[in-house]
DNA 5'-3' helicase (Asaia krungthepensis NRIC 0535), 495 residues
Amino acid sequence: MSESIFLPPVRSLDTFEAECSVLAGVLLNSAMLELVDDILTPEAFTSEAVGELYRIARDRVRAGRPCDPITIRSEAETNPKTAEFWKASGPKILTAFVGKPVMRGYAHAIADAALLRSLKDEAENLILDVTHAGDKTGAVLVEELQERIERLALTGDTDRPMKTSANAIDMLLEATEASWKAGNALSGIDTGYEGLNGLLSGLKPGGVYVIAARPGVGKSSLMLGLAMRAAQTSGRGLIWSGEMSAEELMSKAIAGKTGLPVDVVMTGHWKFPNGERRPVSREEMDRIVAAGMAARDIPMMVDDREGATVQQILTRARRMKRQKQGLAFIALDYLQLMEASAAVKRSGNRTAEVTEISRDVARMARELNVPVIALSQLNRQSENREDRRPSLADIRDSGAIEQDARCVMALYREEMALRLRVGADGQVSRNSGESDAAYEKRAAEVTERLAKSAGTAEVIVLKNRGGRTGIVGMQFDGPSTWFRGDDERRSSAAW
């Protein structure tokens, strides 16, 4: 017996009659275009001729020109895509109109059928890709399919409801009153750092928070500090680390908790300048183990795949969001290590790649309605200035990062910047042609500033949409690479 009798009947993806009805409605009353204009494109029509006539009518209405069977006749008769259809069916097209109440429903049916046809085409293309993939791996095919499906998802999202100003105000007042009653001054996730909370009022859902710095300044450690503290108070987080393994990342958290250097936590040994190594004491090992056991209870997932795409992160984040534990935030370390889509990579334009990544990250934050902490490299421009504090213009590869972010923070350690002026002999480097008096004065100033800046850092809030900018002072412990707020004791808990 054929198995086909157990399958549902074949679904028709032909919406010709609905397309004719929609076109007739617009030609009878051009004001009806606003009922369907946000849903339909000419490409969604199964009939190329009807789709082209819809485009002609739409363009005339948008331009404020008359639109009816008489005014479009000349263009319809001379357009090669519509001439034959108009000659045969033009006079009869108006009889297809069945009423205004069904116009929007017909438009949705046409758009949905177009999306289903695109999915059918993708399924057929996938079979060809798999059977004739050449040297493409399965992972590459999955990535390419994800990109195409994501584009279809965006074009198929025609019915997302808008909010009236009244709806938005009701939601705002409800959230504000709830925060007021709870005595919570934050409107987003607690960063765990009082100084940052004071400027940012927490990390708001749907926003991208960029932390930018030069290599070695400690942006990964600051991100991890934010993530560990936020996960304790607000729920499970997802970290993508393109530079460190999950084990390396967690060694930083344990180092911060114990106050021990990161390399000691990872090896269980002290290393001395003369090359000698000594195992940690029993008490130190107990501290490492205790910190590790405490870290096990922090609700955190770490994705340490190299060169992940935003789509790959989004796929995992969606799954986490659906699970019982949910998803409170995402952290990405760092944007310039992420992969753009295959199509953009083929262009060879690095700015275009980073721009796409930045835009996709912003869309991900909004779709999932969670804050995204995204790290970014700074270029070398800041190192060439007398005042090495970074600016928005120093963000590497793309201005889109600044545009797409809700907040941009630059991490700056004056101690590290000043040490660039000190030579291998420990003396302040002398400028060319500098007199003895000028050198001695400058060297004394650098030495004094070095002493004052030791163990300190600044988070410079350069952009803060809807909030204040400013500088938040931090403490930085070099050996454990951990940040604490200015208001915290050096012996206070790291997380």
